[in-house]
Design a protein that fits this description.
alpha+beta, Alpha-Beta Plaits, 114 residues
């Protein structure tokens, strides 16, 4: 179902952008955990799941996600495999997180609005 934003721009999905800081020397381990379940996310309403790192910051990971809806995103966090990945990664994280929920209106690589 296509919603409208500001009466003109079509809204297609729920987006989430977050960052997490890892303990020193654990960034690659956490990246591997985050990517290990990415293939199955499409079956749960995920359109885009991107894990990124920087060459100048060895301890921060950014994750960008686009979901069919916030409900799909929230439900994905209840999946057994997601809970297991979170439990495995948490000891390698410092507890410093940022997050921003966004409204996705389109872009390259995303499905066209219905």
């Amino acid at each position: 179902m296509l919603k409208r934003f500001s009466g003109r721009v079509p809204v297609m999905a729920y987006g989430y952008i977050g960052s997490m800081r890892t303990r020193p020397a654990h960034r690659d381990d956490v990246v591997a955990i985050l990517l290990s379940g990415a293939d199955g996310l499409r079956d749960h309403g995920c359109h885009l799941y991107v894990v990124s790192v920087s060459g100048t910051d060895e301890d921060t990971i950014w994750v960008s996600e686009v979901w069919e809806s916030k409900e799909h995103h929230d439900a994905s966090l209840q999946l057994p495999e997601a809970k297991a990945a979170i439990s495995k990664a948490m000891p390698m994280l410092t507890g410093e997180f940022t997050s921003q929920e966004i409204t996705v209106v389109g872009g390259l690589g995303l499905p066209a609005p219905a």
